[in-house]
Amino acid sequence: MDHPRYPRPLGLAPLAYGGDYNPEQWPEEVWAEDVRLMGEAGVTMVSVGIFSWALLEPERGVYEFGWLDRLLDLLHAHGIRADLATPTVVPPAWFYRDHPEALPVTREGHRYSFGSRGAICHSSPAYQQAAAAITEQLARRYGSHPAVALWHVHNEYGVPVSDCYCEESAAHFRRWLAERHGTLEELNSAWGTAFWGQRYTCWDDVQPPRLTPTAGNPAQQLDHARFTNDAILANFKRERDLLHRLAPGIPVTTNFMTALSQCQSLDYWAWGREVDLVANDHYLVAEDPRSQINLAMAADLTRSVAGGRPWLLLEHSTGAVNWQPRNLAKRPGELARNSLAHVARGSEGAMFFQWRASRYGAEKFHSAMLPHAGTASRIWREVVALGAELGKLAEIRDSLVRSDAALLWDWESWWAQRLEWRPSVDLDARERADAWYAATWDAHLTVDFAHPEAELGRYPLVVAPALYLTTEAAGRNLHQYVAGGGTLVVSCFSGIVDEHDTVHPGPHPGALRDVLGLTVEEFAPLPAGRGVTLEAVGGGPVLAAEGGSALPGGDGSVLPGGDGSVLHADAWTEFVVPDGAEVLYRYADGPAAGQPAVTRHALGAGHAYYVSARLDAAGLARIVELAAADAGLTLPRLPRDLEVVERAAADGRRYLFAVNHADSDAVLPLTAPGTELLTGAAVSGSVTVPAGGTRVVRY
């Protein structure tokens, strides 16, 4: 990246607090009331203009900026910074009237219609030109406006649609393939077109992976996923570069959606290198009884995409969202708890969608900072209280989260594993990532995410939950990590194919055979609903300080699995043949009965574990406990639902965040006396975290 990074929104001294502000939905006399209430709530920044293209440019080349001038002046007069968007997520109706070909086409050949948002073929030259034109107008007009603190390009790229299969996109795909592969011969080799007679002799014959009678070419589909990511990213970079040139000094961002269930089409490792400030939107899965774990996972992944630097939560909800099957309201106190959990994991603020609840449109039942119930509501009181709390935490800015371990994640591997005709529909990369992350969360480990080819030496423990696609470079990297003293845990169905979805030569697990010290002769998926038992070999591995300890439930309870001598799994097993690895657990039943199930390989100064089954939560807890002991990590015995994260400042100050997700008070032991920032109280020995509450201790 050849442009500078800006550490935070320009001119914003406190933490960012506010939300999407859509004043165009309201008469101007309401605006004055809005900014007055923003002051009451402690709002420091709002996002504006995200869906305003049709108002700013009502006809091609005809611009109406008066309302936005007045809005930005009003915000500035009240000391509120603006995150100003380029409104390129929703081109106006006149644009589609002139360019219906810019609407995306589905894999089945159906063209979407205008009337929602994000209906864009990112390969469309007409869209690219129109988006650049409105972006240039905004940059020239507002690049020096004193209210503008941040540029917000587009909105949630890749949502709700990313792929396009139209003729323009097909031509763009062919150009992208020619640049990537060079020649048709190289393309044929990478795609394995000798299979099913798919060999190409002319570039014009190469098409996107449109609907076929049966499974299509998986390498073609994987390349199309990469192409889609690159095409969308190129549009972001085009707008970003205009803003850098015409409005220098103002950071440029866009809002990611790193929660793995919410955006599946973008490789955020690539995107994180291109934004000035990493920002994320996160919405809870309302019916998940432990939704705080998904929240933490998304925050950790966002921070990791930011290279460990502070980032910004640009959207979440004060209460219910409007697009899930059952949109549950947040419980009292959950609004602040969710917000501060993001801040604990590196966010430099907490922003919402949206400021004032809409009266019409698709999101009129989405919660807001100022709800339909107005200022007499519980939500409003909690919004005001949170603003005051964030005001007390301004000193944490620029401090960095201290992590204990890393989880490996690769979007390209996920894309590849999701394609048709894998050995079992029940083995899903995202589910395994969720499950292994939950095991580390329950063990009170703070984790970073890392690409499998990234430098890993600073982590004593690395877990690979799902690494179906493993490049040779990644295999060498993990071998070097373990040989250098690291502890690696690899889950099943990893190391199988290369970057072209071609099976590595020789026995599975291909690129990971040497580091794991074993081969896999055969996959043995289980029928739906079938489980297996794993039994410890020779009495089972014993932790140095175990003495029959419980698995890490932390609250004194023993998780299912007892002393760890028996583990349980479902969906997936394998026939494993050790080649230097010791066997810790074997299958007691199922198709691989009597065969190795969990192994540990001593390599150089480190160890590599392999888990060949889809273990349940208790089994994963046991493996994390064993591997953490190998890595020299001590797992704290804390209440299970007490989330504890530490941020450290360059001047030596440390900030210990304790977020209590339980319905009873929790006691957190302290290693040194300090000050609790939210109450101002001096604390020593321990701090009590009230049920559903948060405490932040400065050492």
Task: Please give the domain count.
Answer: 3
Give the distance, in angstroms, between the N- and C-terminal Cα atoms. 37 Å
| CATH architecture grouping of the largest domain | Alpha-Beta Barrel
**Biggest sheet: strand arrangement:** 12-11-13-14-21-20-19-16-17-22
| Tally of strands | 29
Chain-averaged pLDDT: 95
How is the CATH topology of the largest domain named? TIM Barrel
Strand content: 15-25%
Question: What is the CATH C level class of the largest domain, in words?
Answer: Alpha Beta
- Count of helical stretches: 17
Spans where pLDDT lies below 50 across 5 or more residues: 544-561
Radius of gyration in whole Å, from Cα?
Answer: 26 Å
Q: Characterize the largest beta sheet: strand count, sense, and whether it forms a barrel.
A: 10 strands, mixed
Which features characterize this protein?
Immunoglobulin-like; alpha/beta; 3 domains; single chain
Question: Strands, helices and their partners?
Answer:
Elements: E1 16-21, H1 28-41, E2 45-48, H2 53-56, H3 66-77, E3 81-86, H4 93-98, H5 125-142, E4 148-153, H6 167-181, H7 184-191, H8 218-246, E5 252-253, E6 255-256, H9 268-272, E7 279-281, H10 291-305, E8 311-315, H11 334-344, E9 347-352, H12 378-391, E10 400-401, E11 405-408, H13 411-417, H14 429-442, E12 447-450, E13 461-464, H15 472-483, E14 487-491, H16 513-516, E15 518-523, E16 531-536, E17 566-570, E18 574-578, E19 582-587, E20 596-603, E21 606-611, E22 614-615, H17 617-630, E23 642-648, E24 654-660, E25 666-669, E26 674-676, E27 682-683, E28 686-689, E29 694-698
Parallel strand pairs: 1-2, 1-9, 2-3, 3-4, 4-5, 6-7, 7-8, 8-9, 11-12, 11-13, 13-14, 14-21
Antiparallel strand pairs: 10-23, 15-18, 16-17, 16-19, 17-22, 19-20, 20-21, 23-24, 24-29, 25-28, 26-27, 26-29
